[in-house]
Amino acid sequence: MMTDELADNHLTCHRYHREFELTANEALIELSDQDAPQRIVKIRRDYNIWVANETLEDYALRFTPHSFRKWSIFRVANTALGAISFLVLEVIGAALAVNFGFVNAFWAILTISLIIFLTSLPISYYAAKYGLDMDLLTRGAGFGYIGSTISSFVYATFTFILFALEAVIMAYALSMYFDLPLYVWYLISAIIIIPLVTHGVTLISRIQMITQPVWIFLMVLPFVFILMKDPDAVRGVMQFAGASGFDADFNIYMFGMAIAIGMALIPQVGEQVDFLRFMPEKTEENRLRWHLGVILAGPGWIFIGMIKMFAGVLLAYLVLQAGESVQDAVNPTHMYHLAFDYVFSNADVLLAVTVFFVVLSQIKINITNAYAGSLA
Fold first, then answer.
1. Other CB atoms closer than 10 Å to residue 140's CB: what's the count?
2. 283, part of any domain
3. CB within 10 Å: which end of the chain, N or C, has fewer?
4. Position 83 in a domain
5. Residue-wise over 199-231: b if at least 16 C-beta within 10 A, else e?
6. pLDDT (tens digit, 0 to 9) for every residue of the chain, 376 residues total?
7. How far apart are CA 82 and CA 272, in angstroms?
8. For the chain, what is the domain count?
9. Are 293 and 144 contacting, i.e. CB atoms less than 8 angstroms apart?
10. CA distances (Å), 297 to each of 12, 110, 152, in order?
């Protein structure tokens, strides 16, 4: 009995001794590694930098903590409003006027804008206050995991369709200036956006900040000249009955169809939310500016959108009055080519400015579409 106990003790001591030797050897190896000079190759250094950048941009997904929401209210709002440059708004306004007449288009645009504002207001507020994306907002609203996944799928589909439409508009403008096949410009207009969104919202905000003054100036400029040179245009468009001339008065059925078309814009609030999540924390000092920024950059996008849709109505009327086709009347490149014709008399300058404005507008919106679509 004593012999068995001694044997067991001997084995236990031997095991502990062996474990001690292994631990000591590992410690010696670790010390020798620390004494050896560290050599970090360039590819590892580049990888570490890339990982650091990607870690920062991880906050663009799902919840955005207050520790990362360090940008100013103005910068966040400006970045969100940069997405309102898309020329599909003018196309929708033009299409409503051409198909249903000014009166029906006018009331439909006002109704659409009111509905979108009211539905976007609570979504934008809670996204900005709590740093939540559309997926988390829909889960909190009781949609559940499957419901939020479906809503994200609908939103992603919206951004991809809008991306394609805006790329087509940009491709058509470029084909007017450069002698390459249209399908080549389709490819270029889509691919050129991808490098601009690989650095996430940090680079996007910088691009929107730089381009915003130029875009606003070029957006307003032609309409100032139109009102100066052709003040009767506003009176004429108010009597516009559409391309068919069917009815210049209010028609409930045309009004309803016009609303159905315009309501396709309602998912746009998701793109506003993708940037409003970076709004800084609301405090007593910034309370007024915070609410103003959230309203303007959130549901307030439709106010600018409404103006752009009415601009499309006016431009479509002017294009048709100039004897152009219905297809040209709903083509934003042709619409703004005619608009800038009121400003520039030189044909080369006119075409160059038109193409530049269209391309600038489409880049501003498509970096948002690509970013928001990839998140969704």
1. 12
2. yes
3. N
4. yes
5. ebbebbbebbeebbeebeebbebbbeebeeeee
6. 434 443 444 444 444 444 444 444 444 444 444 444 555 566 766 656 655 554 445 455 556 656 666 778 888 888 888 878 888 899 999 999 999 989 999 999 999 999 999 999 998 888 888 877 777 777 767 777 777 788 778 888 888 888 888 888 899 889 888 888 888 999 988 888 888 877 777 788 888 889 999 999 999 999 999 999 988 888 888 888 877 766 678 889 989 999 999 898 888 888 888 778 888 888 888 889 989 988 988 898 999 999 999 999 999 999 998 888 888 888 999 999 999 999 999 999 999 999 999 999 998 888 887 877 776 6
7. 10
8. 1
9. no
10. 72, 19, 21
> Is 31 contained in some domain?
no
Alpha-carbon dihedral sign for residues 113, 118, 123, 129:
positive
C-alpha dihedral sign at 95, 98, 99, 104 = positive
Helices (H), 230-286: 232-238, 252-262, 269-276
Domain that holds residue 158: 70-375
Q: Indicate whether 79 belongs to any domain.
A: yes
Which pair of tokens denotes residue 272? Answer: 């506003």
State the first-to-last Cα distance of the chain, in angstroms, to the nearest integer. Answer: 72
Q: What single DSSP character describes residue 139?
A: I
d(CA 364, CA 205): 10
For the chain, the farthest-separated pair of C-alpha atoms sits apart, in whole angstroms, at 117
What is the CATH classification number for the domain harbouring 123?
1.10.4160.10
Helix (H, G, I), strand (E, B) or coil at 279: coil
Beta strands in 194-287 (DSSP E): none
Instruction: List own/partner pairs for 134-137 with CB under 8 A and 24 or more apart.
Output: 134/270, 134/273, 134/274, 134/376, 135/62, 135/376, 136/62, 136/63, 137/273
pTM, whole model, 2 decimals? 0.77
Q: Is the dihedral of CA 257, 263, 264, 265 positive or negative?
A: positive
d(CA 50, CA 198) in angstroms, rounded, equals 11
